[in-house]
Task: structure prediction
Amino acid sequence: MKKKVLLMGKSGSGKTSMRSIIFANYIARDTRRLGATIDVEHSHVRFLGNLVLNLWDCGGQESYMDQYFQSQKENIFRNVEVLIYVFDVESREFDKDMHYYQSCLEAILNYSPEAKIFCLIHKMDLIVEDQRDSIFKTRQEDLKKLSLPLECKAFRTSIWDETLYRAWSSIVYQLIPNVKAIESSLHQFATILDADEVLLFERATFLVISHCQLKHHSDSHRFEKVSNIIKQFKLSCAKLGAKFQSMEVRNSRFASFIDTFTSNTYIMVVQSADPDTPSEATLVNIRNARKYFEELENPVNNSLSSYSMNYN
Result:
């Protein structure tokens, strides 16, 4: 199952840097050596087994942008599932940025009217911290008005913090088949384990693709922080020739487990009801649930087999 994703924005807005961090295992400081995208770079990213993201990273130089809206218009904007438009928050050509975005919207309406639209207000780390909220809200409102009759969801992002993972997790979530069934079963699994939270991460990117929260937590950015930290740790392991498989963190207040789950995911289980519960009890239940979730990710003929969840 292929899904066409357009990544657009003016040259220098940060499109290729964020793509390289999410899908090519770059770390933020290494993106400085990336050059400008020439014309359109195509990449096929396998995601959750049967889902393949057909990612079109479109160069943002003016000569290319003009071609996209003239001679290449149908080729670029036909059969698009998702348009991601990246704005450099410090751009000195904001009006031109908005003009190009509006041209994208017009083309999407003509060729892919069902496409989902996301705008990333990028490089927010360059804005003074106490001004970030107001600047983002202003840009967000402007974009929502300009996008009508289409709906646009905006995110603030930076390659230097967890906001990039938050935005891309939300975008990819929209593309995952059978995601509601996965979420429902994850809730059942969390209840059986008496867990505070259970999260599923995509194996290669470590983006959060589903979660269940049974106990309130004050940090709304914790998922993306974990994504960022664990992915960097995985890369460090790889540089040393080691392979990351699992991790356990335990103190007097909670126990947390990160383990390989299905062939396409890692799972994270957080428990605080009884942090002294033996680790093996949780790990056995994770192992027992693997086959069931494998079938949820790859349903045969759109239906599950008779396999049911049985836990210790």
Observations:
- Residues 279-297 form the longest helix (19 residues).
